[in-house]
Amino acid sequence: MAKPDIAALARELDRDLHTIRQLLRRPFEAAIVEGGLTGPQQSAMAALIRSDGLSLKELSGQLGLAHSTVSGIVDRLEKRGMVERRTDDRDQRATKITVTKQVREWVRDTMPALGIQPLDHALRVATLAQRQTIVDGIRALRAALERTM
Q: b/e for 123-136, b at 16 or more Cβ within 10 A?
């Protein structure tokens, strides 16, 4: 019996996991496209969602874009009701840009469901035996990785 080529198995598994990650992201990416945000607007929203609010200078620094460019991006997002400018609690002269309550609720409530959607569908169309094989395989892979970390 031939010895398994572990490196080849690892490469194959890496390719499969990469494809799985792409498939799991499809509903989220479709929602982003549906929202009609440009790439820079998406980047700005991602930075703002990860924060409790950023000044225009901080946001410009994180995006690596000119202050005037980011100001225009924020203006357009504000017109769409996605961000708002608020006076900084610590410095009344400064303004922080934050995502709106509606955006925070979408991130909290809708975004996680978009990630589960493809898994839910795949498990529903799989047979009981296939479901058990999937669960057992993923659990075994996780356990093996945890033992090596």
A: eeeeeeeeeeeeee
| Nearest C-alpha neighbor of 111 from the set 125, 122, 128, 99 | 99
Chain segment 28-74, per-residue pLDDT in tens: 888 888 888 888 999 999 999 999 899 999 999 999 999 999 999 99
| DSSP secondary structure code for residue 51 in this structure | S
88-141 confidence digits (pLDDT tens): 777 778 889 999 999 999 988 888 888 899 999 999 999 999 999 999 999 999
Nearest-CA neighbor of 97 among 63, 41, 59, 68?
59
Helices (H), 36-86: 39-49, 56-63, 67-79
CATH architecture of 26-121: Orthogonal Bundle (1.10)
Candidates 67, 71, 63; CA nearest to 43 is: 63
What token pair was written down for 94?
């400064």
Task: Count CB neighbours of 17 within 10 A.
Answer: 11
| Residue 1, helix vs strand vs coil | coil
